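Operator note (shift B, R.M.): manual run for Ferrous iron transport protein A requested after the automated queue skipped it. Running by hand, logging everything below so the morning shift can see what happened. Input copied straight from the record, untouched. If output looks odd, do not overwrite the archive copy; leave it for review.
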Amino acid sequence: MDQPKENTRSVADLKIGEKAVIRSFRDQWMSLKLLEMGCLPGTEVSLHCKAPLGDPICLNVSGYCLSMRKVEAATILVD
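Run finished. Output pasted below as returned.
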């Protein structure tokens, strides 16, 4: 979708409790999977928690908790 820029932040960059709004996706195939799970552009997400070693992570999105690997979270670009 959008090409990554140097100052682009992703969900993987969020700190626990930090909120952001989904802007776009880096990976078209992964974006289809994420869209089906409620990660729509314009949706607010917040990082709920991380596993002890930092992977996977748990996001609050559209009223529920969504767990994913950091590599997947890195494909979600946020403002």
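Quick read of the result: The longest strand covers residues 19-25. Residues 6 and 70 are 19 Å apart (CA to CA).
Leaving this for review. - R.M.
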